[in-house]
Amino acid sequence: MRKLQNSELIRKSVDEFKQSSKTPIIIVLDNVRSLNNVGSVFRTADAFLVEAVYLCGITGCPPNTEIQKTALGATNSVLWKYFKTTIEAVEELKQNNYLVYSIEQTEKAIMLNEFIPQKEKRVAIVFGNEVKGVEQEVVDASTGVIEIPQLGTKHSLNISVSVGIVVWDILNKI
Q1: What is the CATH number of the domain that holds 58?
Q2: pTM of structure
Q3: Radius of gyration of the chain (CA)
């Protein structure tokens, strides 16, 4: 089996990406510290044709060389918007009829493998700070909470890994 060259892969140009119908998902980053994580999220958002990435609080914004290291140009294709607070982003999303789900571990969280997106509804998914997770105020304002099942000793996954898992799962379900 021969590995394909980049020139053999059929990929959209930035203009084609911007004009394409998007997956009805918005990724919300709640005070994410690592610029490498932010860049990885942009790359994942590009890969799955996500509608937008919302950057909130201390989350770094493009243009930034540290973000670019892992985004590899995805900041040019993916629509993004900055909010001073995550709760402002959540309020705007809810006003625009998005269902907002925090990815967190809570008492009544729905396990990702059991989560079924509502047909014809757009979804926003909030991912939290690498140490503190999603702010409680944001969890409280969310439509619901989704938890990624884990089997090992660690309490969480890296945010960029979590984004990939959750977006891929929801994309496959819709």
Answers
A1: 3.40.1280.10
A2: 0.95
A3: 16
